[in-house]
Amino acid sequence: MHASFKRRRATAGRVVGRLLLAIAVILVGLAAVVGVNTWRHDSRQLDVPAVTPVAVDGAAAAAHLAEAVRARTVSSATDAQLNADQFRQLHAMLEARYPKAHAVLQREQVGDFALLYTWKGADPSLKPIMLMAHQDVVPIAPGTEGDWTQPPFDGVVKDGMVWGRGAWDDKGNLISQMEAIELLAASGFKPRRTIHLAFGADEEVGGERGAKQIAALLKSRGERLDFVIDEGLLITEGVLPGLTKPAALIGVAEKGFLSVQLKVGATPGHSSMPPPQGQSAIAMMSATLKRLDDDQLPAGIRGVAQEMFTTLAPEMQGFSRVALSNLWLFGPLLQKQLEASGSSNAMLRTTTALTIVQAGNKDNVLPGRAEATVNFRLLPGDTIASVTAHVEDAAKAAAPKGKFELSRLPGSSEASPVSPTQSASYQLINKTVRELFPGTVVAPGLMIGATDSRHMIEIADHVYRFSPVRAKPEDLPRFHGTNERITEANLVELIRFYHRLVQQAAGA
C-alpha cells in the first residue's frame, strides 16, 4: 500500500510537471507573440520636412482677437435677434481690420447674421474648399463672473494671452482664418480652387439659422466641396497615458444627437391609498430610467476609436504601447479602463444621459403622470431609429403596466459619416500639422460633441473637425468654462496653419 501510494504520487508529480511545462511554453509563446506584435507595428506618421512658417504680427493678431471678444455675441435658440447689435459690431470689425481680404472676397450675409465669404478660384473644374468657424459664444454661468481673472468680455491681452469668452471657442479660429486670408491676399496669392469661409452665428444652439442655411444655399447653386475643416479636436499634451509627444487628433466623424421625452400615466389618487408596489407613475418611470441607466448601449474598441489607437500605438511608451498593439489580448482590460472615464467612455459607445425628471406637485397626492428626458449621443453605426427602439423596449420591460408616450425632441441628428483617412484632404491636413508642428503625432479621432460642420455632409464627403489649439489637462475645463483664453504664440500657430493649408489646397 505504501509502494502504491508512492507510485501514485510519482505519477501525479509527472502530470503536474508536464502541465507546468506546458503552461510555461504557452506563456513564453504568448510573450513572444505579444513582443513581436508590439515591435512590428511601425510608425504611421508622415515623414515630412519642417517648413519655414510665414511671418505673422502676433501682437496685432492678438489685438484683433481681443476686439472680437468684446462683441458679446451670445446666441439664443428662441430669439434670433438677441444681441443683434453685437453681431453687427463684429461684422464691422472684420471689414475694418481685414481690408485686403475683403477686397478679394465676396461677402454674403445668410439668414440673420451668418457670413459666407467666397474667394473665386481660377479653375472652376476644381471643387471648392471650406474653412468654418462660428461667431457666437456661450453665456457666462450666473454667479461665476467674479471667478474670472479678467472680465470675460473685456478682451484683455495680458501675460502673453488673450482672455475672454470666445478666445478659444471659436473666435480664435475665425480671426486666425481671416488673418491667414489677409496675408495671402497681401502676398498676391491667386487661388486656383475656390475658397469658402463659413461663419455661423448660432452654432452653440444648433446652427439651424446659420450653417444649415449656408449649406442649403450652396446646394441650391449645385456646389460640392472638396473638403471642409471646422473646429473640433485639438493638439493635446499629457492627456493620453503613455504618450509623451503632443497629439493632434483630427476628427473624422462626430456623434449624433437625440433627446427622447418619456411620459408615463397612472391613476392619480391620495397618498394614503397608494397602488400596488411599482405601479405608481413615479415608480414606473424610475424603473424605466434605472433600466436605461443599467443597460447602456454596448461599447467597443472599434471604428474610429480602433483606428485612433492603432495609429497611436507605435508612438506610445511602456505598457500602453504593448496593450494598444495587442488589442486581441488586452482589448477587454483596456476597454474596462476606458469605460471608467467619462471622456473616453464617450468614444466607445452611444452614451445615455438622464437629464430631466418631473412628477408631482403636492406631498400627499399621487401624480397621474411622470415625465423624463433622456439624451443620447449617437456613435457612428447607431441610428435615431435603433436608439428610439432601445428606449421603447426598456419602457415596456421595466413598467409593463404603464401607459407610455414616447416622443423625440427637436434638434436630433444622426451620427455623421466617417470621413476617410486615406483621402488626399486628410493627408493634406496631416502633412500641414507635421510640417508646422514637428514632433506632433497625428491620428484620427471622434468628435463627441456637435459642430456646424455636420450641416455640410450633404455637399461634402470629406468633413474634418480640427484646429491646432494647444491644450493640457488643466486647460480643458476652460472650454465653455471660466478663464477661457489662448496664448498669443498659439494664435500665431493657428494663423500659420490656415495660411499653409489654404496655400497648398488652393494654390497652383
Automatic annotation (TrEMBL):
UniProt superkingdom: Bacteria
Key word Protein biosynthesis present: no
Gene3D superfamilies linked: 1.10.150.900, 3.30.70.360, Zn peptidases (3.40.630.10)
Organism: Ralstonia pickettii OR214
Family: Belongs to the peptidase M20A family.
GO BP term, example: lipid metabolic process
Listed Pfam families: M20_dimer (PF07687), Peptidase_M20 (PF01546)
Residues of the Peptidase M20 dimerisation domain: 252-402
InterPro entries: ArgE/DapE_CS, Bact_exopeptidase_dim_dom, Pept_M20A, Peptidase_M20, Peptidase_M20_dimer
Coiled-coil portions: none
GO molecular function: hydrolase activity, acting on carbon-nitrogen (but not peptide) bonds; metal ion binding; peptidase activity
Keywords: Hydrolase, Metal-binding, Protease, Zinc
Protein name: Acetylornithine deacetylase/succinyldiaminopimelate desuccinylase-like deacylase
Keyword Hydrolase found: yes
GO CC annotations, alphabetized: extracellular region
